[in-house]
Amino acid sequence: MNIFKKSTIIFITLCLIFFCGCEHSEPIEDLAVIMGFGYDIEKKSKPKNITAMEFITVEKKDEASSDYFVGKGTSIYNAIENYKSKQEKPFSYGSELVYIISEERAKLGMEDLAYDLLSYPDVNINAKTIICKGECKDYFSLKLKSGSASEKLSNLIKFENEEHFFSECYKVNDFLCMYYQQGRQLYLPYVEIIKKNFQVTGVAIFNNNKFYKKIPIEEAKLMNILRNSGGTGIIGIYSDDPFKYLEMEGESNLKVKVSTKNHKLNYDISISVSGDLRIDTLYGKELSKKQILKIEKKLEDKFKKDLDKEVKKIQNVYGFDCLDLSKYALAEYGRNSGYDSDEYFSNAKINIDVKVKIESTGRTYKGTAKN
Amino acid sequence: MVKNKITQNQYMFIVFSAMIGVGVLTMAFDLCKSAKQNGWIPISIGGLYPIFILITASIIDNKTDHASFWDYSNKIYGKKLSYVFAFIFLAYFLTIFAGVSAGFSHILTLSIMPFFKPMTIIIPCLILVTFISLSGLQMVGRISELYFYITLPLLLVAIFLIPTGSITNIKPIYFSLSEMSKTIPSTSYYFAGCEVGYFIISRISNNKNTKKAGIIASLIITFVYFINVIIVIYNLGWELTSRIEAPLLYLIQSIEIPIISNFLSIVIFFWSAIALRLLLIYDFISSEILSKVIKIDYKKANFIILAIVCIYAFFMTPEYNRKMIVNATMPYFVLFSIIWSLTTVILVSVKYRSSKE
Prior knowledge:
The complex is a heterodimer of chains A (371) and B (357). Chain A has 2 domains: 21-217, no CATH class; 229-371, GMP Synthetase, Chain A, domain 3. With 371 residues, chain A is α/β, with parallel strands linked by helices. Chain A is 33% helix and 33% strand. Chain B is mainly α. Chain B has a single domain (8-356), classed as Amino acid/polyamine transporter I. Helices cover 76% and strands 0% of the residues of chain B. The longest helix of chain B is centred in the first third of the chain and has 43 residues, at 69-111. The chains are: A alpha/beta (371), B mainly alpha (357). The A-B interface holds A 1, 5, 8, 11-12, 15, 19, 21, 23-24, 94-95, 118, 121-122, 124-126, 171, 173, 176-177, 180-182, 327-328, 330-335 and B 36-37, 110-111, 113-116, 120, 124, 127-128, 130-131, 134, 167-169, 171-172, 174, 236-237, 239-240, 243-244, 250, 253-254, 256, 261-262, 299.
C-alpha cells in the first residue's frame, strides 16, 4: 500500500504541473485582448452583419495602445471569422468594456445578438451596452487625446447616473434582463460623436425589442425619472430673465402601485426628489422654513405638470409601454393576466404624485438678491 | 477517541455535505422551468424529505440499540433481501457519485477550464478522493467538519446580491399543485444522498441526540438552497433564470469587487472543495457497502469503486447525458428509500420489541 500512496502523491503533483493549462497558451503581450465590440449591419440588397472590434496592442515597450479591425459576413460568427483572417494574433474575450450596437442594427432586430451575449460563456456581463448613431467603426477609429475609445465610452456610461436621472443599469446583464423579462422593454443610452468627442445625446427606446425612436435628452430626463430610481439630476423653475431662476439637485425615488377599475389599469406613481437647493435668485428671500415649503410646492407643481404632459405623450403618441410599468401589473395580477399588452397601457389611468424635499440650502441662509 | 468512530457534530456535517454538491449552482434553472417565479416554494417543501429520512434513521438506531446496518437488516429481511437492498443503495450512491463528478467537470469546463476534456478533470479528482478515502471514516468526518466552516461563507455569497434585485421578479406568490408537482423529479436530486445517515449513524460515539443533529443538518441545507434560489430569481426573473444553465455562476460573475479582476475563478476554486468533499463521502460509503456485499477488504473495494465510477462517469460526460440518466433514475431511488425506511421502522419496532421481552 505504501507504493500506492507514494505513486498517488507523485501522480497528483504531476497533474498539478502538467494540467495547469499553460500548454498552448501565449503570453498576454501577444494576445489581442478585446476591449470593445461593435454590432453593425450593412443595408444593401441583403443585410450583412458587420462586427468591429477594438483590441489592445503593445507596440512600444511598456506602452499599450489600441487598434481595431472590421469583419464582414452573413452572420455574427461569419463576420468574426472574417475578422480573424485579418488579425494575426489569437484573441481573447473576458475583459470587454463596452458593446456598441448601431442604430441600423437595432432597427432590424437583435434576436441573434441577445442569444450570443447570453450563451457565450466568456462574455463579460459587466460590460456596458450602448446604442450609437452611424457606424460602429467610426467610434473605434476616433483619435482621442489619451486612452482608448472603449475605455472612454465605458466610463461615460458608468458615471451617467450622476446627471439627467439616468440609472446605472446599462450593463450586458441588465440588457439581457430587459430583453427577456416579461413586461419590460429595452431602454439604452444613445451616444453620438459631436466635435470629435463622445456624448450621450438621449436614450433609445424599443418596441418589442426593435429600435423605435431616439428621445432627446430633455425629454429623456423626464422618462428616466418615471422609469427608474436612484439617479441624480437637476430640476428647476426658470423665468424670462436669464439670471433669475431656481434650481435644485436631487436624487429621485420611484414607487408604483397598481389597481384595476372597470377592466382598466390604474397606476399610482409616487416620485420623490430629495436633495440640495443650488440657486435661488428667483425669490431672493430669507430661506426660512416657510419659504422653503413654498419653494418645494412650486417645484412640485411645475414638475408634476411636465411629467403629466410626458405621460400623455407616451400613451397617445408612442402607444407602448417604454416606462416598464407593465411589470408592476404582471407582478400584481399574475404572468398570464395579459396586462402587459399595449392596449391596456394606452388606456390605463396614470396618476402621478410628486414630492420634492429640500434637505440643505448649501452655505447660504439668506437669499443672494441685493435688496 | 476510538478510530472508526465519529462525533455527533461530524455526523451532522457528513450528512449536510452528502447533499450539497454542484446542484446549488444549477438548481434555479430546473425549478424555474416549471414553477416559474415561485421556484423557491418547492425547494422549501422539499426540505421535509431529509428531515423524514434522518428522523427514521435515528429511530431505527435507537430501537435497535445502535446495531449496524448489516445486523438489523439481516435480522429483519434475511440475508438474500438485505443483499438486494444493499445493491440498490450501492447503485443509488454510485449514480450520485458519478453524476456529481461529471457535473463538477462540466461546471469547471464551463467557467474556468474551457481547455480541458471532462475525463482529464474527473480521473485526477477520483484518484485523489480514493487516496483520502483509504484513511477511513474518521478522516471523512474531520474533513467534512473543517470544510463546513471554510465553505459556509461561500454558500451565502448570494447575500451580496440582495440590493440589486427587484421585488417584481418574485411576485405574484401563489401555490399551484400541478406546477409544483412537475418539479418533483428535479428537486429529488438536490436532497438525495441524506441516506448515508443509515450507514454511519451506528458509529457515533455520543449517540444521545442524533435526531436533533439530523434536523439541524436538514434545516441548514434547506436554508442554503432557499436563499440561493430566491436571490437568483429576485435578481434575474424567472424568464432569464430558465434560460441559463448555471444561474448562480452567472450571477456571481456580475459581482464586481475592486482589485479582484475575476471573482468567479476564486469562487470556483473554493467550490471545488465542496465538490471534492461530497465525492469523498460517496467514495467511502460505496466502497464500504461493496466490501460488505462481496466480502473483500475495504481497501481493495476502494479500487474497484474507482474503476466502476470512472466508467460510469464516462457515460455521463456530456451534460445532456447526465441530465437524462439522473432524471430517469433519481425519482425511483428516492421513492425506494422512502418505502424502505417506512417499512424498516415498522418492522424494527415489531421485531426488536419482542426480542427484548
